[in-house]
Amino acid sequence: MGFGKGLATGLAIVWLFAGVANAAPDRLAPTGHWTAVATGQASTPPMGWNSWNAFHTDVTEQKVLDSAKAIVDSGLAAKGYRYINLDDGWWLKRRASDGRMIVRTAIFPSAAVGGAEETSFRPFTDRIHAMGLKAGIYSDIGANNCSQAFGGPDTPNLPEGTVAEREVGLYGHIDQDIKLYFGDWAFDYIKVDACGIRAFGADSAKVKSGLYRALDPLIDTKEIRRTDIPAVRALYQQVADALHHTNPDNDYIFSICAWGSADVRAWAKDVGNVSRTSDDITPSWTRMLANFDSAVGRSLYAHPGSWNDPDMLFIGHGDFDEHHLTEARSHFALWSMLSAPLLIGYDLRQAPQPLMDILGNSDIIAVDQDAAGNQAVLAYDTDDIQILVKTLANGHKAVAIFNRGLAPAEVTLTAHHLKFDGNTPVTLKDLWDGHALPAFSGETRMHLEPRQTLIFDAAGTRSLSDGLYLSEMTGRVNPAVDGVVTPQPDPTIHRMITPWGGTTDTGEPPAYTGWGGAQADATPYRQMLRIYGTAYETGLGVLSNSRLEVKADGQFRRFVAEVGVDDSTFDADDDVTFSVYGDGKLLTTSKAMRFGQPAQTLTADVTGVRIVELVARGKAGKNKTPTVVTWGNAALLNK
Ligand code: GLA
Question: Residue 253 C-alpha to ligand 1 middle, in angstroms?
Fold first, then answer.
C-alpha cells in the first residue's frame, strides 16, 4: 500500500470515528447484553408482609413483631414469606443538625438507644433477623411523603418539627439515608414512593398554608405530557446506585412505587426490582380488577430480577375477607399468575384459618415463585372470562380460568390455549385442593361460579416439541427498546379514579402509560398478530424501531420466526428490516418489508449464543406514526 493511500484510509477512519462520536447513540444497536435489572435479591418475586394495608400509619413495633411472629408460627415463613416491611408512619423527623433520620420511638420503643434525637432501628432489625426473616423500610423519592400529602387531621404519626425537619423523604439525602437504612440499620428491602414529587407544587393547599416547602412536581399522574420522565428515572437511578454501593453483598430489594405513572412501564425494569403498575389497591373487587388489568398486559416487562407490582395483597379485608373466600382466592391466584410480589397486608394476629390456608397454598405459591419467571400470558380475553397461561420451568403450564362477572359461566379450556397438542392427553391438577382431573384430549368443559378462579397445573405434549415459543418464555425476553415514542395511557384498563378521590373529585383517571408496548401473542394494541392475512396465534408483537433481548443462555440451536409488517399497522408506508443478532453479531437480516407483503421466514443458527437480539428497524429510525410489526411463531429450537 502506498503512503498516500494509507493516509487517505487513516483520515477516512478518523472521520468515521468523529462521525460516530457526534451521532446520537443508536438505541437499536445490539449490545450483546441483558440490560434489565439483575442486581438485588429478586430472582423470584418478593414475598412477605407489609404494614400498610393492615394498619396504615397507625403502626407500632409490637404490631409488626406480632405479625412477624405469626408468619413464623403459622408456617408461612417456611413457605417463603420472609420480608417484614414497614410502610409509612415510622418516622419522627430529620435531625436539624446533620439531616440524620429519627425514628418515632413512641411507636418503635426499641429504637430509643440514646437521647431524644439518637435513635436506631438496629435493635428492631436484629429481632426480625433473629426470627430468620428480613426487614424492609419505606421512604419517598421527594422531600415529603404520601401521608403528608393525602392524610387528614386524624392521620396518626405524621412527621413532626419544623418544615425542614418534616422533610423525611430521600430528596437531597439519597446517599445519606440509604447508608443509614442499609449500612447502619441493616434493612434488606426498601419501597420508595413518589408523592413528594407529585403533590407538593407551589399551588397545593398544604404548601400554600406553609405546612410544607414547595417542590415542583415531576409527576402528573393524569397527564404524561406534564411528567418529566427522565428526571423521575434519574432520581430512582440514584437510589439504585446508592443501594448498589451500600450493599456490596447484593442483599437488597428495591421497590419503585410510582403507581404506573412516569412511563415506569418502559424503564423501571432497568432500575428497580419491583415496580408498581397502578394506583393503590383497596379492598374492593373492582379496584382489584383494575390493578390486575394494569399488569396483565405487561408480561414481557417482568423478568427474574424485575417484576410488575399490581400492589400488595388485600386478602382479609372488605371484598376479600373470610366471608368472601371466592374473591380472596381469585385475588391470590391472579397475583401468582402475574408473578407479582406476594406481600400480605393483613393483621395476622387475628387471621381466620381459611384465609391462612389461601395465603399458605404451597402449590399456588410455587406458581408465583416458579424459577422460569414467566409472567402469565392471556390465552383468552373476552366477555367476563379470561384464561391465563404461565409456562413453568419444568415445561408444565399453570393455567388460571377467571370469571370476572356476577353470573356463573361454562368455559371450554382447549389444549390449544396451553400450546399443547390436541390429540394427546392433557392432565390437570387442581391447585386449590391438589386433586387430579380425568385426562382430556382437545378440550374440556369447566363450570365457574361468579368471581371464581380455577387454577391448574397442566401437563401435556407441547405443540412445539423441540423448543420454546418466545411467548412461552416471557421472563427471558426484555423489550430493551419497544419503539414507543409517545407514551399513551392504556385504554384497556378500567377508568378508576384514585382511591384518595371521590365523586366530588374531577373523576379523571390516572394515566397508566403502556399502550403500544411489546406483547406476547398479540399486537402492541392487543389485536391478533396477522401478516398479509395470515394469523399467528403465537409470536411477539412490537412496534418497529425496537430491540428485544432474548436470554438464550447457550441452550438452543436455532432461532426461527415469520416476520413482517402487521396488518393492523398505522404506518402502511414504512420499510422495515428485521435483523437477528447473536451476542452482538449479526446472524441474519430480512429484506426491507412493507405493509401488504407476505411474511418472510428468518432462521439463524444460535448454537452457543447467550443473548439473541431481535431488531426491527423502520425507514425513519423513529416511529412518528407507529409501524406494527410481528415476529410470528418466533421460537428458539433445540435442533
Ligand atoms: C402510597 C403507596 C401506598 C402506601 C402509601 C403510604 O399511596 O402507593 O402503597 O405506601 O402511599 O402513605
Answer: 17
